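We emphasize that the prediction below concerns an isolated chain of 118 residues; any contacts that depend on oligomerization or on bound cofactors are therefore not represented. The input was used exactly as deposited, without trimming of termini.
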Amino acid sequence: MIHIADAMSLKILELRKIASLYFIYLLIFDFFIIFDFSPIFSEPIWAVILIIIATIINVLVQKIKNWTPILFVGIWSFIAIAVKQWGNEYIVAYSALAGALVLLITIIIRYNRNPSLY
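Result of the prediction step, given as a token string:
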């Protein structure tokens, strides 16, 4: 029988795993800002790289914890990025839409594999 304290410690460990993924994303983002790699790539390319990293982190969070709301927030944010960048940088807009599509496909695949989770 699992005690309440044990169950809470397991939840805390799971939350720490997810928080560490977001912490890694923030470290990468800060690394790009601090060491200004703009001579290597332009700002739109860095935005695309960060969209790819954010998509990977969202898919990993779904795989680890099965948190579908995280994916919906990711889809919402990627669509907002696409709408904001539509007239300015099409590569960023299309990358954000592609990230949103990947997250939507992830939701559909997880639902088809185990509909009782939803």
